[in-house]
Amino acid sequence: MSIKRRKFLFLGGLSTIGLGLLTNKFSSNNTQETAVKAANINIAATPIENKSLLRFVSVADTGTGDKGQYSVAKAMTNYHSKNPYDLVILAGDNIYNNGEMEKIEAVFERPYAPLLKQNVKFQAVLGNHDIRTANGEPQLKYPGFNMKGRYYTFRRDAVQFFGLDTNVNADWKSQLDWLEKELSSSDAPWKIVFGHHPVYASGVYGSNPDFIKKFTPLFQKYNVQLYINGHEHHYERTRSINGTTYLICGAGAGNRAVGRNDWTEYSTSDLSFATYEVYKDKIELTGIDTKNRVFDKGIIPLKSA
């Protein structure tokens, strides 16, 4: 083989090796670049988690033991099967007509048996029908209602609840002093008060001027974002009034007509209950009827104004 032929083959081999190395370098760079791009896409496609801190429901004026109560209880159980919760705020008139404890199986233990069997805890307060027997004392002692007194507080995660006795014979002086003390000392981001009687309402009884005078200054001063009640047999959600949303969930077994006011966001006489999904920065509130239909949705921001 001639010298020129050998030189050509040697140089050609070097070129092939160099081209291979260069190709590998480009291929490696492209692979790394593709991997980085893919990772960035995956990061962008994964939303920042905003997990709820607490899910609970509320209902009131339930204790009839009739078809209406069972229909609402069934809807509450259906909601639980898809959106598990372990807390129910029971806002009074737990036993019709006169708070007789001998009816407790018919008006509480049987209707809510599927929930009770799954360790759902009911936190009750006394309604006007409940105090007709021994001023409600038997209900205070009943373990299933989890009342720590005629008025009491408990906390779940970032939420502190304050249950009140709103009946006409309540010890208002002591109770209001206690409420202000508890509200002022609470460091909970969310403060929710519940009682039987309404502050604002568009139903048969209407708004309570005395309660507006008693409660609303405290609610505003200590940033109570939500007040839950029954007594009126309808569902009604107000707009934020000086930082507080008022929610009536009294169509838990029977219903009555309801109107509207300029502060009403939504109202209906449909048999129903309310649900609450609590996040760090908001509460998502919904109304659900006996057909499992979500008929109302509202949001309460942490700094409601």
Characterization of this structure:
This protein has seven helices and 13 strands. Helix content is 33%, strand content 23%. The protein has two domains: 1-46; 54-301, Purple Acid Phosphatase, chain A, domain 2, CATH 3.60.21. With 305 residues, it is an alpha/beta fold. Strand 4 (152-156) and strand 5 form a beta hairpin.
The domain tally reads: 2
Sheet with the most strands, sense and barrel status = 7 strands, mixed
N→C terminal distance: 95 Å
Structural class: alpha/beta
Helicity, in percent? 25-40%
Strand order of the largest sheet: 4-5-6-7-9-8-10
**Radius of gyration over alpha carbons?**
30 Å
Question: Mean of residue pLDDT?
Answer: 88
Q: Can you tell me the CATH class of the largest domain?
A: Alpha Beta
CATH-derived topology of the largest domain? Purple Acid Phosphatase, chain A, domain 2
The name of the CATH superfamily of the largest domain reads: Metallo-dependent phosphatases
Q: What is the name of the CATH architecture of the largest domain?
A: 4-Layer Sandwich
